[in-house]
Design goal:
This protein is an all-alpha fold and about 110 residues long. About 70% of the residues lie in helices and about 0% in strands. The protein contains 3 helices and no strands. The N and C termini lie far apart (about 105 Å).
C-alpha cells in the first residue's frame, strides 16, 4: 500500500517515542543471545544488564574454546615435527650407509 512520505515519517516518529513498544523484537533478540523470555522485565536497564551478562558468559565460553583449539593445534604440530625429524634422520642414516658402500667402477669403453 502506498503511503505519502509525510505519513511514513509521522509513523516512524510515533514508534520512536515509546521504550516498550515493539518489545517482541527485543524478546526475539534476547532469545537469540540466550536470555529467556522470563528474564526480561519492564525495566530496560535490567534487560540491558541481563543481555550484557549473558554476552559476557558467551564470550568467556568462546575464548575457552579458542584456547582449547589452539592447544590442540600446537600439540598436533609438535607430533608432526617429531615425525618429520625422525624421517629426516632415517634418510640421513640411509645416505651415510649408502655412502660407505664402494662405488661401482665405470665400465671401460672400447674405441
Amino acid at each position: 500500500m502506498f503511503q505519502p512520505k509525510a505519513a511514513r515519517e509521522a509513523a516512524c516518529r510515533g514508534s520512536m517515542g515509546s521504550n516498550r513498544r515493539n518489545t517482541h523484537y527485543m524478546v526475539l533478540w534476547a532469545n537469540s543471545i540466550g536470555a529467556g523470555v522470563s528474564e526480561l522485565t519492564d525495566d530496560p536497564k535490567v534487560d540491558r544488564l541481563t543481555r550484557q551478562r549473558l554476552a559476557a558468559e558467551e564470550g568467556a565460553k568462546a575464548l575457552e574454546e579458542i584456547a582449547k583449539r589452539a592447544a590442540d593445534v600446537l600439540a598436533n604440530m609438535a607430533r608432526l615435527r617429531e615425525l618429520r625429524l625422525a624421517k629426516e634422520a632415517q634418510e640421513i642414516r640411509a645416505e651415510i650407509s649408502a655412502g660407505n658402500q664402494p662405488k661401482p667402477k665405470p665400465k671401460k669403453r672400447f674405441r
